[in-house]
């Protein structure tokens, strides 16, 4: 069974929501894209977490693994880039 909402109540609710959107947009600022702000925040948080993770690495092998992960390279490529031997 569906509840019936009058057209008058629906219009009133729509007006309330439109006023709320206008108020929030005014707080955000004119011509500001909220999606861009959120995407920038996410990108900055991702960079922060990568840096934090890199600083928490303790041993040299883990450090190489972390560096390879951050640079999206293999451990072999890191060894080649830094002229490291297999013993390093």
Automatic annotation (TrEMBL):
Coiled coil: none annotated. GO terms for cellular component: Swi5-Sfr1 complex; Swi5-Swi2 complex. Transmembrane segments: none annotated. One of its GO terms (biological process) is meiotic DNA recombinase assembly involved in reciprocal meiotic recombination. Belongs to the SWI5/SAE3 family. PANTHER family: DNA REPAIR PROTEIN SWI5 HOMOLOG. This is Swi5-domain-containing protein.
């Amino acid at each position: 069974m569906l509840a019936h909402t009058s057209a008058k109540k629906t219009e009133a609710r729509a007006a309330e929501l439109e006023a709320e959107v206008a108020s929030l947009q005014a707080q955000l600022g004119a011509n500001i894209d909220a999606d861009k702000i959120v995407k920038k925040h996410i990108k900055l948080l991702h960079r922060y977490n990568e840096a934090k993770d890199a600083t928490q690495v303790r041993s040299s092998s883990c450090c190489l693994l972390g560096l390879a992960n951050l640079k999206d390279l293999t451990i072999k490529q890191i060894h080649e880039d830094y002229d490291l031997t297999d013993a390093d």
